[in-house]
Amino acid sequence: MKSAVFFGKHDLRVVDSPVPHVAADEVLIHVMACGVCGTDVHIFQGDEGAAKTTPPTILGHEFSGVVTRVGEQVTEFKVGDRVCVDPNDMCGHCYYCRGGQGHFCQNMVGIGTTVNGGFAQYVAVRAKQVYRLAGGTTFAQGAMSEPVACCLHGIDLCRIVPSSRVLVIGGGMIGLIMLQLAKLAGAHQVALLEPVEQKRAMAQQLGADLCIDPLHENVPERLRQEGFFPISTVIECAGLPGTMAQAVELASNKATVMLFGLTKPDDTFPLKPFTVFQKELTITASFINPYTMQRGWTSSTPGKSTSHPWCATQYRWTTLPTCYPTRLCGRGASIWWTRTYSRRRPHRTSKISRMKGVSQLRRLPGDFFVRRAHAAVKTAYTDTAPVA
C-alpha cells in the first residue's frame, strides 16, 4: 500500500508499506479521508505534539474510511461499514484511566503519533476505537469527528452559560468549530479576531455576532463600540505567544481564558500575576479528547452546524508531502488531497527531504484535478479507490 511516512524533521515521504496485520480485536480500515492537524505540522517541524513520535511513523490521526477486514473477536462491525476512529487508545487500567482521567493514560497508544496512522491506504485499529458513520455523513465529515471531539473538551472547560460573551482568537478550522460550539452551548454573543478576510466571512456565515481584523483595527476600541462587554470567556485558537498574551489582556473580570492553540514546546509569553489576581481570571488549557468522541461524531453528522464542509482545494494523494509548506505558509487555505481511481500508471513521488514552498503545488494531468473554493481552514486527503 502507499503511505506517507515521517522519517524525521522536514522528511515526509510517500513510500510503499505492507498492509497491516489485523489482530483478533482489530479491524482493517481502507482510509478515505484524513485531516492534516496542526499537531502533524509540529511533528513535521521536529517538535513534539500531544505525544512523542519516533520515526519512521505513518502520521495522520483524523481519519475515516471503510472496514475491509475484521478480527475474529470483532462482532460489532462488518466488512463494508463506513467508520471514523478515535485515535487515542487508553489502556483502561492505569492510575489515570481508573480515576476517570484517561486522556493522561500512562500507556496511551496514539494512532498516527506513536503508532502508524491514517496517512496510508489502510490502517488497523482496535474495534473499541471505531465509530460507525451515519448514512448521510461524508468521509470528510467523518474525519472531522476527532477535531470536533477535542474542541468539545475545551468548550466543556470554558463554563459557558446563556449570558456569556465569548471571544475567539483565530479563525482557522479549530476557531470556527469553537465559534459554533460556543453558540450551541448557549453563549449570548460570540466574536472572532481573525486577520484573513475570507475566514471572517465564513465566521459570519456560521453565526459570529462580530468579526474584527486585529491587524487593521483597534481591537479594544472596536469591542467597546460594539458593546461587547463583559467578555466572560476568551478562547485562543491561534497557538501563538502574542495572541495568548492578548487573550489575557482582553478577558474581563472573573473570565475564563482557554489557551486551546498549540504552541511550540519552548514558547513562552509574559504573564503578570497581578493582572490574574486583579481580574480573578481562570486560565486553563485542553488536552486531546477524553470521552468526547461520541459527541464529536454526533456533531459531525449531516444537519449539525459543526459538519460544515471545510474543503477548498483538491490534489492528487501521492503529493501529500507538498501540503506541508502550504499549511505552514500562513495563508489559512484548506486543501483536500484526492486520488480518483484510475487504470493509469501511478504517479511516482520522490523523496521530499526539504520543503521548497507552495510552488510545488501544481495542476496534475489526466484524471487528477484541482478545484478551488473559498478559503477555509483544514488540510486533508481522500482516497476513493475501490475497497480491496
Query: For the record, what is the CATH homologous superfamily label of the largest domain?
Result: Medium-chain alcohol dehydrogenases, catalytic domain
Mean pLDDT: 82
Low-pLDDT runs: 328-388
Query: What kind of sheet is the major sheet?
Result: 8 strands, mixed
First and last CA, distance: 11 Å
Q: Tell me the helix content.
A: 10-25%
Percent of residues in beta strands: 15-25%
CATH 2nd-level architecture of the largest domain: Alpha-Beta Complex
Briefly, what CATH class of the largest domain?
Alpha Beta
User: What class, by secondary structure content?
Assistant: alpha/beta
Task: Provide a concise account of the structure shown.
By secondary structure, the chain is of the alpha/beta class. Helix content is 23%, strand content 23%.
Task: Describe the model.
The longest helix has 14 residues, at 145-158. This protein has two domains: 2-144 and 310-383, Quinone Oxidoreductase, Chain A, domain 1 (Alpha-Beta Complex), CATH 3.90.180; 151-285, Rossmann fold (3-Layer(aba) Sandwich). Helix 4 (145-158) packs across helix 5 and helix 4 crosses helix 10 (293-299). The model is unreliable at 328-388 (pLDDT under 50). Helix 11 (323-328) links the parallel strand 17 and strand 18 (335-339). It has eleven helices and 19 strands. Strands 3, 5, 6, 9, 10, 17, 18 and 19 form an eight-stranded mixed β-sheet that branches. With 388 residues, the chain is α/β, with parallel strands linked by helices.
